[in-house]
Amino acid sequence: MTNKKIKFYILDTSAILSGKPFNLENVKMITIPDIEMEIKPGGKDYQFFQFLKEKGLSYQSPSEKSINEIIKKSKETGDFERLSNFDIKLLALSLDIKNQGDHSIVITDDYSIQNIANYLDINFETINQKGITKRFKWINRCQGCGKKFKDDINICPICGAETKKIVAKKQEI
Ligand SMILES: [Zn+2]
Question: Ligand 1: distance of its center to the CA of 146 in Å?
């Protein structure tokens, strides 16, 4: 069996807005077509975006199956509300690339994207931030009586106060 994994950098918007050059040796850059709506024409960001496209940045839409898997996982961890449509699709593309047997590395500064990537054994690299060192789960806690809820409850059924998301569980990565 040959073991010729291709290394993919899956670029989040934050990776492009950073303007930081990546080491592009033996790496394929890829993102989702929705990126066109994220980077406004004109200015430095757009120039860098064009530069990356010239260097081979390509687009791919994620599979429906992976999108559903990301939604399911992010609901489990409590990250769902923190993820935009873009984030979900980008994670789904990362999962598709991993499932096709290639080396999938998400480039992002978004903690929720990092958290889900971690749960799905997808590698990530950060640009400006330090990156998460623990994986975590969110739960809702009532700001009135302090009761904790696993489900996504916004108003406490006991005292009627609003709940707030807190980190329930941390695991060393
Ligand atoms: Zn309460």
Answer: 6
In DSSP notation, 132-166 reads -SEEEEEEEEETTT--EESS--SB-TTT-PBEEEE
Ligand 1 centroid to Cα of residue 115, in Å, is 28
CA of 154 to the centre of ligand 1 (A): 10
Task: Look at residue 85 and tell me if it is in a domain.
Answer: yes
Claim to verify: residue 59 and residue 19 sit in the same structural domain: yes
| Ligand 1: centre distance to CA 139 (Å) | 14
pTM reported for the whole predicted model: 0.79
- Same domain, yes or no: 36 and 84: yes
Answer for the pair 159, 142: CB distance below 8 angstroms, yes or no: yes
- How far is the C-alpha of 58 from the C-alpha of 29, rounded, in Å? 6
pLDDT of amino acid 173: 64
How far does residue 166's CA lie from ligand 1's centre (Å)?
Answer: 15
pLDDT digits (tens, 9 = 90+) for 23-58: 778 899 999 999 999 888 888 888 889 989 998 999
110 in a structural domain: yes
Let me know whether 156 and 73 are in one domain.
Answer: no
Q: Cα of 164 to ligand 1 centre, how many Å?
A: 11
Q: Which domain holds residue 168?
A: 134-172
Domain of residue 20, CATH code = 3.40.50.1010
140 and 76: one domain? no
83 CA → ligand 1 middle, Å:
26
